[in-house]
From TrEMBL:
Belongs to the RecR family. InterPro entries: DNA_Rcmb_RecR, Rcmb_RecR, Rcmb_RecR_Znf, TOPRIM_dom, TOPRIM_RecR. One of its GO terms (biological process) is DNA recombination. This is Recombination protein RecR. NCBIfam families: recR. A zinc finger (C4-type) spans 56-71.
Amino acid sequence: MYEGIVQDLIDEFGRLPGIGPKSAQRIAFHILQTESFDVSKLAELLTVVREKVKFCEICGNISEQNLCSVCRDPRRNPALICVVEEPKDVVAIERTREFRGFYHVLGGAISPIDGVGPDDLNIRRLMQRLADGTVTEVIIATDPNLEGEATATYLSRLLLPMGIRITRLASGLPVGGDLEYADEVTLGRAFEGRTVVSG
Ligand SMILES: [Zn+2]
């Protein structure tokens, strides 16, 4: 334990996802000891990002405007919606250049252990988007792990009665992993080879 504010800083970094006590300490001391480290720039960015970045009103992706850049793009195919867990998955799929439809970001996955149920996810808005019949295919691209599978199963059951074609990414993605860690080629192939979910 360090004295006062140094420990406060370490504790604060330790609250961030994926940062354990050792990393938190390393980051804190890096900031304290590196003269060239621009503290005011980081502080300003943190403030501005909170003020400016919001969630797209249509798809839930992050955006600096009411609608994200994907939803503002008129050249995309309105018949296709790809459902993902997080905004970072949108970035991963965009990198493959395989998909020219729209997205829907759930904001997580169903995980009873973490207390996350369907009502905690951005599912109601998805149902609204599907109501007018424009969308003919929903591609479920949740992560290839337990929570992602549970979410995909839940969504399939919910959407199949609506008569929309439901597809899932082909296997070949590293199981137990995170969509964003799949390389572009693998993720692109998984998209091309997506399979239809039947009831
Ligand atoms: Zn959007």
